[in-house]
Amino acid sequence: MASPSDDAPAPHSQTLSRGIRVLEVLADADRPLSIAELAAALGVHRSIVYRILRTLEDHGLVVRNAAGAAQLGPRMATLARSVSRSLQSAALPQLSAVANELSMTAFLAVLDRHEVVTLVSIEPANAHASVAQRPGTRHPLATGAPGIAIQSALTDEQWRELPDEHPRDEAAIARRRGYATSHDEVIPGIASVAVPLVVHGQPLASIAVVYVASDRDTEAVGGRLREAAAAVARDLG
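Above: the chain sequence. Below: its structure as tokens.
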């Protein structure tokens, strides 16, 4: 007979949780962070962060510079390439075509719990200047065109799995016209257009572009992105 404890949730590993949190903090940073900065971010003693960093270094997930500041290591890029590999492979040709046709940075973002995470990004080949969108960049689901586009595709069941999230009014507008827009939400002065990408067996995603805010025809951009999303969905069939 099963004991009452058999149905109890397994205890979490505090050390593993802290190690993952270190990786998240480093991913969000725009520069290497010192042990003191990481300790402050995690709310723990520096000796704990030091031991975590040593382990992450051993696995190539973190590297430290001459001053001892830490940043994500090359092994992280290898792991990232394995995330939704088929989705990334199918999206890359479309992202390249969109980026070069529109002279905008095009990217694929996926829903990760309450956040939107950039998986892969392509900058236009011949543009004099473009907006960088670093893979691994994340922002709240309720912020920016990629998040609004994903919101527009969420089913009632999926919304129930996100009890702390609420649909923006813009999500209903995006659902009607087929694309979402944003301006000055994630990065000041930067605009974005995005469309949802729904593929069975893959995380809910969006295909988007970012560019310096201008008078670009967002309807035309949205139409081109819908074509790209449809092509990716057909490829993954």
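DSSP finds nine helices and eight strands in the chain.
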